[in-house]
Write a structure and sequence with these properties.
With 394 residues, the chain is an alpha/beta fold. The chain has 3 domains: 58 residues, no CATH class; 54 residues, no CATH class; 207 residues, Rossmann fold (3-Layer(aba) Sandwich), CATH 3.40.50. It has 11 helices and 16 strands. Strand 8, helix 7 and strand 9 form a beta-alpha-beta unit. The longest helix has 19 residues. It is globular and about 95 Å long.
Length: 394
């Protein structure tokens, strides 16, 4: 047994109930997925500590946990919503100030927040957004002080009129209100278990769900997990999603699997090609003004689809790279903005940064080389800026 010593900080030692509160329980579930629920169920059935058992029973009464028809524990929508809100608060508490990428859409009077600056009036602009101070200044500068046009009547003051024309009108600028559809592609290959990568990505995903639901209800956000295959991750399943365990340790793997048999093959490969295909299908059904794909990955593709077959290839093969890049280009042609978040804690031992560079150049997208700890900053800033278009005002 090993012992570790540290300086006492003076804080009160936590009791059992504080050590095993709701937040700690949710963190445990986020980190270990279905295995955590099984452990909790075993704890309820064979309690070692009465306080813990009572707390878990209380979570059932409060509607945070529930049991399915087979008696297995599951998270309730109420618990998932609370986890999302907590993730959002955690993300924004740590969100540093950063420069966004300048995708703001500035337009006169379209319901967004008023921002600094004005623009000349153009036909069709709402006159309700006239900046009276700037308009009067333009009129007086161009046409001078008003001259008396009518003589004084009955001892009253003379009436003078300020001359205006359409070039004098200035309008307030507003931040444009647009809708955005986002698909987040989560790498679920075996290597995502390292360095807490997938846990960090999952927390950001849940925070984005809470943000969209609370602040941007007109937006849509979908999550797709890609591994040897790819599937959409429903909201209730996201907290329990986990990377696929590595089952083959051979130095070289060359496998050809029929698509209808893919679930029987090793699952820990990286099939970004199939993930992009699914993302395109999802976004085709969306009518939003802005569409974007976020790719969170820690390695280059090791799988791709050709016809009715999926190829699992390690070390990475150029065929997988080419197929993936072609799919990304097709997404851009359909109006999607592609951003790649490359997790690089151990990229010094990997030869895949070149793939991200190629992807970024071909799609004219954005690449972020970041660590798990900085992932929230990059994704949130990119989402908030990417949901608006950039308009140059002449």
């Amino acid at each position: 047994m090993k012992y570790y010593y540290g300086e006492y900080d003076g804080e009160e030692f936590p009791t059992q109930d504080k050590l095993f509160g709701f937040d700690q329980l949710m963190q445990f579930i986020m980190q270990y997925g279905d295995q955590a629920l099984k452990a909790i169920q075993n704890m309820m059935e064979n309690p070692e500590n009465e306080n813990q058992s009572d707390m878990l029973e209380q979570l059932l009464k409060d509607g945070m946990l529930d049991k399915d028809g087979k008696g297995r524990l599951r998270l309730t929508p109420r618990a998932i919503s609370k986890m999302q809100r907590k993730a959002l608060m955690e993300v924004f508490a740590n969100l540093r100030e950063g420069q966004r990428e300048g995708h703001e859409k500035v337009t006169p009077g379209l319901g967004g927040e008023r921002i600094e600056g004005t623009k000349p009036y153009q036909f069709g602009d709402p006159v309700s957004e006239l900046d009276l101070h700037a308009t009067l200044h333009n009129a007086l500068t161009r046409h001078g002080l008003p001259q008396s046009a009518e003589p004084a009547s009955a001892g009253g003051p003379s009436r003078a009129k300020i001359k205006f024309d359409e070039h004098d009108f200035e309008l307030h600028l507003h931040e444009g209100v647009t809708s955005c559809s986002t698909v987040v592609l989560l790498d679920m290959s075996g290597s995502m278990m390292r360095y807490g990568r997938f846990l960090a990505a999952k927390k950001v995903a849940m925070a984005m769900q809470a943000l969209v639901r609370s602040k941007f209800p007109q937006d849509s956000i979908d999550f797709v997990g890609f591994y040897s295959g790819a599937n959409k991750i429903p909201e209730f399943a996201l907290p329990l999603a986990m990377p696929k365990p590595v089952t083959i340790y051979d130095y070289q793997v060359r496998m050809k699997v029929k698509l209808d048999q893919l679930d029987k093959a090793p699952q820990h490969f990286t099939n970004l090609h199939m993930g992009l295909q699914l993302a395109r299908r999802i976004l085709r059904k969306r009518s939003s003004e802005n569409k974007q794909i976020f790719i969170i990955t820690d390695g280059q593709p090791t799988a791709h689809v050709e016809g009715e077959f999926c190829y699992l290839l390690y070390p990475p093969d150029p065929r997988s790279t080419v197929a993936t890049l072609k799919e990304a280009v097709l997404a851009v042609k359909e109006g999607c903005r592609v951003s790649t978040f490359a997790l690089i804690e151990d990229y010094w031992g990997m030869d895949w940064v070149g793939f991200v560079d190629q992807l970024t150049k071909l799609t004219k997208g954005v690449a972020f080389y970041t660590s798990s700890g900085e992932l929230a900053n990059c994704i949130m800033e990119s989402y908030l800026s990417g949901r608006k278009k950039k308009t140059h005002i002449a």
